[in-house]
Write a structure and sequence with these properties.
Elements (H helix, E strand, L loop, with lengths): L4 E5 L11 E5 L5 E3 L11 E8 L3 E16 L6 E16 L1 E9 L5 E8 L1 H7 L4 E2 L5 E2 L4 H13 L5 H12 L2
Antiparallel strand pairs: 1-2, 2-3, 4-7, 5-6, 7-8, 9-10
Length: about 170
């Protein structure tokens, strides 16, 4: 059975993979790209960098309504009444993400760009990230990352608005 973290991934450049696939992280922290679970994938990668621009949204407003005339006596005086209702719909658009990979077979660096949504980012950003010397880097939880940014705010190294923006990015809002 599949025990890997996985999410859909559509590379726009840099990868030998074409079209929609899944990015999968094995228990050892290596990743591979495949629609289906593979017990021993031939091609694996190490993530050495990941950057995402954060969520972007499109807002659509739709107004519906009706109006009618109210006739008063005498007919010369008329009054118009209207009932309007506006509905706001907010949808997330994918935004640019960059994944820097190290091919475990050839030791070549590969840069892949794609559009990601918050849910995809939350999964990929939790994957193990390796440094250039191929040593694993401890990946802090989202709560730990927010505490680090809060510490910068407390030291007056960043503004309240910068703290809020970073917190929203980390929470995928």
């Amino acid at each position: 059975s599949e025990k890997e973290r996985t999410t859909y991934y559509i590379p726009s450049n840099g990868m030998p993979i074409k079209g929609k696939t899944k990015i999968r992280e094995k228990e050892n922290g290596l990743i591979y790209f495949s629609q289906y679970f593979e017990k021993d994938p031939v091609q694996t990668y190490k993530i050495v960098g990941f950057d995402w621009n954060g969520p972007q949204y499109t807002t659509r407003l739709e107004t519906t309504g009706s109006s009618k005339n109210k006739h008063l006596v005498p007919i010369i005086k008329q009054k118009r009444t209207a009932n309007l209702h506006t509905t706001e719909t907010k949808t997330e658009d994918g935004s640019l993400a960059k994944l820097i990979l190290l091919d475990t077979n050839t030791k070549q660096k590969i840069v892949s760009e794609t559009k990601l949504f918050s849910a995809q980012n939350n999964i990929i950003s939790a994957f193990k990230i390796w440094d250039q010397d191929i040593k694993p880097i401890a990946h802090n939880s989202i709560a730990d990352q927010i505490k680090e940014v809060k510490n910068l705010l407390d030291q007056n190294l960043i503004t309240e608005s910068e703290f809020s923006a970073k917190k929203k990015q980390l929470l995928g809002l």
